[in-house]
Write a structure and sequence with these properties.
By secondary structure, the protein is mainly α. Helices cover about 80% and strands about 0% of the residues. Helix 2 crosses helix 3, helix 13 packs across helix 14 and helix 13 crosses helix 15. The longest helix has about 60 residues. It is globular and about 55 Å long. It is built from 18 helices and no strands. It has a single domain, classed as Growth Hormone, Chain: A (Up-down Bundle), CATH 1.20.1250.20.
Length: about 400
């Protein structure tokens, strides 16, 4: 078997913990910390926003670091820092840490770790191994994100109910380190010799080392069009997911809301495979526009009422493209700029996306506190998706007509 598929398996493990702990867990953290502190939804949303804003600086720094030194040191840092944030959350909830600034610092640490386990590190690990089947490889590896989303929220809820939040987070942090560090040591490396020639061509293993100057990337119209569309869509997606449990718990209770998160994550696993298969057959801007419209439809369906079956259906529809929206930025960037300097290009893209994620999460909390309902936040998040559709289709038209220049 081609060794690259073992690397895909390693990416699956990274994504499982990156998303399971550092992405899908936030709704659960907000509920638990809200009960223990009595803080408002707006305050806790701002805490979560710090997680995304910390990703901005981390993405810029780690993207250049990947171009120069490879993905392995970044993955090691992501594992250690994410585990440390789990232990710090346990200490905060149990009273060993109690100041508000300490909670902001914990989420900032978790945010700096996230790029080292999520799409940036996974895609940078796979790019030297795959060219022809990059979409499929990313789809399989990032299915770990869906698995993490399906497993972690219910696991956290069950373990916290049985053992307490502190012991549960301590155990999750320990499992993360024991799982990811061997992956970094054994699998996160570029191909050599025949390994490179089999799937990617003989020069592919070295392509990640040759960085495109930042001024060339930042001066490209197509780059900023991609960045804008991806930022708006991810902001809308994260704004929904960070509030999904608080949004649904009144109708489904905490356990039911956690299972709705799992439903969205499982649906995302299917959608990710669909995008992986279609990415080589259809123009990526068209696929991206379709994904944004699907999630906007799911968000609007949540406004229709509170029957549990409808809420689960809306979560499944919105969740179907969760993984696709995460996969699309790497695919769009490689399609436009190739593998050279990918770390830098994706670092700037991810930084912009995380700014939007932080702003959308905080704004949703503020609007909820002002209106007393999630109706207005959901309409606003759906509107962000519609703007992203217009931008990405404009980008696609420029590509077809030859107007797209660097």
């Amino acid at each position: 078997m081609y060794r690259g598929w073992w690397v895909v398996a390693g990416g699956f493990i990274m994504a499982f913990y990156g998303w399971g702990v550092g992405f899908y867990g936030h709704g659960f953290y907000m509920v638990v910390l809200g009960r223990s502190t009595g803080w408002s939804v707006a305050t806790l949303s701002s805490v979560v926003s710090v997680f995304w804003l910390a990703n901005v600086a981390a993405s810029l720094a780690l993207g250049r670091f990947i171009d120069r030194f490879g993905a392995r040191p970044v993955v090691v840092y992501g594992a250690l820092a994410m585990a440390a944030s789990c232990l710090a959350l346990a200490a905060f909830e149990t009273g060993y840490l109690e100041e508000r600034w300490q909670l902001f610092a914990i989420f900032a640490l978790m945010g700096s770790a996230y790029p080292g386990l999520a799409a940036m590190a996974v895609s940078a690990t796979l790019l030297p191994w795959f060219r022809r089947r990059l979409g499929l490889a990313l789809g399989i590896a990032l299915t770990g994100a869906s698995a993490g989303g399906a497993v972690m929220p219910p696991l956290m809820a069950w373990a916290s109910a049985r053992y307490g939040f502190g012991p549960a987070m301590t155990g999750i942090g320990a499992a993360l380190v024991l799982s990811v560090l061997p992956v970094a040591a054994l699998l996160v490396r570029p191909p050599k010799g025949r390994e490179a020639a089999r799937e990617t061509g003989p020069a592919a293993g070295a392509s990640m080392r040759r960085a495109i100057p930042a001024r060339r990337i930042l001066g490209s119209v197509r780059f900023w069009t991609i960045v804008s569309a991806c930022g708006l869509s991810l902001g809308a997606q994260v704004g929904f997911l960070m509030h999904q449990i608080p949004l649904l718990q009144s109708a489904l209770d905490l356990s039911g809301a956690a299972w709705a998160v799992s439903t969205a994550a499982l649906s995302a696993a299917v959608g990710r495979f669909v995008l992986g298969m279609l990415s080589a057959r259809f123009p990526l801007p068209v696929l991206a526009a379709g994904c944004y419209l699907v999630q906007a439809s799911g968000l609007l369906l949540l406004l229709a009422g509170e029957p549990p079956v409808l809420l689960f259906a809306a979560s499944a529809i919105a969740g179907f493209v969760i993984g696709c929206i995460v996969m699309l930025p790497p695919l769009l960037l490689v399609d436009s700029f190739g593998q050279d300097g990918y770390g830098t290009a994706y670092g700037v893209t991810e930084a912009t996306m995380f700014v939007m994620a932080g702003l959308a999460t905080a704004a949703s909390g503020w609007i909820f506190d002002a209106s007393g309902s999630y109706d207005a936040p959901l309409l606003g998040l759906a509107g962000l998706h519609l703007l992203a559709v217009l931008l990405i289709l404009w980008h696609g038209r420029r590509q077809r007509t030859g107007e797209d220049t660097q």
